[in-house]
Amino acid sequence: MILKSPTVGICISDHVQSIPESLKGIKVRDFVNGSGTLDKIGSIQPPNGSLTVDADIFMMDRVDLKAFMWLLKHDRLLTNHNKSRRGFSATTCNLCGHANESTLHVFRECPRALEVWVNKVPSKMHHEFFNLDLEGWIKLNINGSTKKDGGWSSYWAMASLEMDNKVVGRTKEVRLIKWIPPSLSIVKFNVNGACIEGVDASCGGLVRDDEGCWMRGFAKHVGICSSYMAELWGLLEGLMFV
């Protein structure tokens, strides 16, 4: 069976938005060369001459940045807000105590995040930068439109990744803590508090002499609260204990 060249074709302007004026009346068949392969369709520029946010993310060099930015764009990072939706945590921000640790709170609205952005973002951009929704905020920064000089999108992505490591990822630092005995004939009282986020918290304390021998102590169930509040409960109970 011999296929003849079509006399009609699909008009691109009926299916694609924001194409150049010179190409609005052109048909798909006009992009096929004599060998039957596509010739020019790749030359059509995306709307407004810029790539989509997903495409910009894909073009990043570092794999960890690609993965992080994809999770950020789709609101899949394990903030306390997102963990609470799965029943794993309370929504409270552990850094500032705000009632809802959402993605925008972690990366833009928390006082720790504000310290990073307020002096870096030009004042004329503050209203837009600090009021866009998550998708618009990411698009603004990843397209580099916040600053005229190059490199803003990379700086913003790296700074956001650092925030993720410190807040969402809760990068752990292991430190050895040695108990220091008090002076001769003096007793020392230590208190502590700990919690499993969104599940339970407790506090406790003990009194030891100058040789480290246990004298007396206490333990108390606190309930659901942050680790910071558990520490405060330990301090309060310790003061009442002595």
TrEMBL record:
Domain Reverse transcriptase zinc-binding, first and last residues per copy: 65-117
A Pfam family matched in the record: zf-RVT
InterPro entries per record: RNase_H-like, RNase_H-like_dom_plant, RVT-Znf
Name of the protein in question: Reverse transcriptase zinc-binding domain-containing protein
Organism whose genome encodes this protein: Pisum sativum (Garden pea)
